[in-house]
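Course assignment 3, question 2. Fill in each field.
Student: A.L.
Task: Predict the tertiary structure for the chain below.
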Amino acid sequence: MNPEQIVLVKQSWAQVVPISEQAAELFYGKLFELNPDYRELFKGDMKSQGKKLMTMINTAVGSLDDLSAVVPAVQDLGKRHVGYGVTDEDYNTVAAALLWTLGQGLGDGFTPEVEEAWTITYTTLANVMIEASK
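Answer field:
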């Protein structure tokens, strides 16, 4: 991830934050559309789950200048996801739901460059989670 991509992710995320509740709803709606079996993984209140998701993304985005600060938390998250039955392939479905959600929330602001920056960001963090799950 280069400095320009970090700026793109941070700037675009700043536009999503004010609509984070709706973004979380869109994300989980798309995730469950892509794989209805995922509903079984979420037993609690989805509004609360959405807030957790947005907080986690916010923390990750805020740490992009120094990923080492967030790696331990991301590794722990990856280890916990094993217990939920998450497989390596599931990360691709989550990526699709996330990118779709960002596209919906950002509209014309979701340029190919922004999409690429988010794809690299997600892939980087997902790979840390996958490695930790082994």
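Instructor remarks: The first helix runs from residue 3 to 16. The helical segments are 3-16, 20-34, 46-62, 71-83, 90-106, 112-133.
Grade: pending
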